[in-house]
Design brief:
This protein is α+β, with helices and mostly antiparallel strands and 290 residues long. Helices cover 34% and strands 18% of the residues.
């Protein structure tokens, strides 16, 4: 299985696992933290079989979180889950910048030089800016039949055309199907707009995580940047939680998933915590939907 990108972050180092010396195991990379970030105690196990212990490789004001792995590691689903578990454990003690799933360095020197290197001051600045923030994901979808029934019920001409479709020729039936599909797309886009209007006031920034606009696309796959704790002049994670519950009660036709708090990885360009949210960027889709 080729290495896949789960979480956005700095590019993996150029060195490959096979470049490691015979007497030294290569290092699997998880994320970047501040140099004073406490390591997991007791040390957690990382990915691979057998898994290595999590450790920090420090360089200037930051540190990379790594664990030794076999030379020929092949990233499996369980490794992706463990990768995220390690990030969540680290996140409990402070901000973390996730690295791409499957990033491997041949040794600690390569971690210091190629992963951290000259970027260390900028990485530290971003980590400091992300202090107190979390990322949460909201997913919303409606079953295809529910959406089709709603579209037809809202347009009497569609309902009449459906009733006549048994006697219509193929071209007319295709045209009817296209009209319904267009209606489903417009319905989902409208639903997404309403959900975002209700959730955005509780967030600092937001961005799409999945393509939208097609009849097979979900209503919403979105990431939000939220203050973890309450403070003067801003809403916090608890209030965002409450907003999600209101959305669930207000839109029973939708199945709404909610995941978080997560380390921040869709908003790594954040410079100052109080910057207004900008326009949503192009959605980034990982193999597991992150």
């Amino acid at each position: 299985m080729p290495a896949t990108c789960l979480l956005a972050g700095p590019r993996p180092p150029a060195g490959a696992a096979g470049a490691a010396g015979a007497d030294m195991a290569p290092l699997f990379l998880y994320g970047v933290v501040r140099d004073d970030h406490p390591p997991p105690d007791p040390a957690s196990l990382g990915v691979g079989d057998p898994p290595g212990r999590i450790q920090l490789v420090r360089h200037g004001p930051v540190a990379a979180v790594v664990s030794p792995v076999a030379d020929a590691i092949r990233v499996a689903d369980r490794d992706a889950e463990r990768h995220l578990d390690v990030l969540l454990e680290l996140f409990d003690a402070g901000p973390v910048i996730p690295l791409r799933l499957g990033s491997v360095a041949p040794d600690e020197d390569a971690v210091r030089e190629e992963v951290l290197g000259e970027a260390a001051p900028e990485l530290r600045r971003r980590l400091d800016a992300l202090e107190g923030f979390v990322e949460v994901h909201v997913d919303a979808d409606e079953s295809e039949m529910s959406a089709i029934r709603a579209v037809i019920a809202a347009d009497p001409s569609l309902a009449a055309a459906r009733d006549r479709s048994g006697d219509a020729d193929l071209s007319n039936r295709v045209a009817l199907g296209e009209r319904v599909a267009d209606g489903v797309v417009l319905r989902r886009l409208h639903q997404a707009e309403i959900l975002l209007e209700e959730l955005r006031p509780c967030a600092v920034a937001d961005t799409g995580r999945w393509a939208m606009g097609g009849p097979e696309d979900p209503v919403l796959r979105w990431a939000f940047l939220v203050h973890r704790d309450a403070g003067p002049g801003h809403l916090d994670l608890e209030q965002f939680d409450q907003a999600v519950e209101r959305v669930r009660h207000g839109h029973p036709e939708l199945v709404i998933g909610y995941v978080g708090p997560l380390p921040v990885f869709h908003f790594l360009e954040l410079v100052e915590p109080d910057e207004p949210a900008g326009a949503a960027s192009e959605p980034s889709r990982g193999r597991w939907g992150w």
